[in-house]
TrEMBL record:
UniProt name for this protein: Armadillo repeat-containing protein 8
InterPro entries named in the record: ARM-like, ARM-type_fold
Organism name: Culex pipiens pipiens (Northern house mosquito)
């Protein structure tokens, strides 16, 4: 049914697989083996968002289940599929799910997403989107893997802008998210030359007082 042309049956099949993917690693490995290719393909079918989103949930479950299922999905092209969607989607519910999937893959360390791909694709694309919690987590985990170094002179300032905009959105009330933001900014400024002046300019532009957070010594 998953490969048919009836969208209702496709959705039902995707929901069944999503339920199966809530099982153990062995169950996820079997789902990945027999249906992974179709799930990856259907995620890119943006004409049916309900099916695409359900398939994305299934893939997320398998990614987080362990290395075996992830190895199978990797061989089926999940990374190029996710990076393509990251490139074409803007503010969108599915984009949040794509970012969550990438975050889960980054939890495997650079086993599946190389440092080169993080530098060239993940960081520039993620920080170019409208900020949200999932994009912040992807940026943080990706930067942890690169030692907070960026590939070129444009990416670090773009990340700074992205994170400052997120601080404006969340305010001081969201402590955990604010701490994550400050950690990104502090490490970027420490590692990347020229980021400090850009950070100060962004904070002044958006009226962000970093001393308010008690974690950084700039305003």
């Amino acid at each position: 049914e998953l490969t048919g042309h009836d969208s209702d049956r496709q959705l039902l099949a995707a929901e069944c697989l999503c339920n199966l993917s809530l099982g153990d690693e062995v169950c996820c490995e079997k789902v990945a083996t027999f249906a992974g290719t179709y799930l990856v393909a259907l995620v890119e079918n943006l004409s049916n968002r309900r099916v695409a989103t359900t398939c994305m949930w299934t893939l997320q479950n398998m990614i987080s289940s362990g290395t075996k299922a992830m190895k199978i999905l990797n061989s089926q092209g999940i990374i190029p599929s996710l990076t393509h969607l990251l490139e074409v989607l803007e503010k969108d519910d599915l984009l949040a799910e794509i970012l969550l999937a990438i975050e889960l893959i980054l939890d495997h360390d650079p086993a599946f997403i190389s440092i080169e791909t993080i530098h060239a694709t993940i960081l520039p694309l993620t920080s170019s989107k409208e900020p949200q919690l999932n994009s912040l987590k992807v940026v943080y985990k990706a930067l942890c893997l690169t030692g907070f170094e960026t590939l070129d002179v444009e990416t670090a300032p773009q990340i700074v802008k992205h994170v400052v905009q997120q601080l404006v959105l969340i305010g001081i009330e969201n402590g955990a998210e604010a701490i994550l933001s400050i950690r990104i900014l502090a490490n970027l400024v420490a590692i990347n030359e020229g980021c400090e002046d850009f950070l100060v300019a962004q904070c002044q532009q958006h009226n962000v007082k970093l001393r308010t957070y008690g974690l950084f010594n700039l305003d």
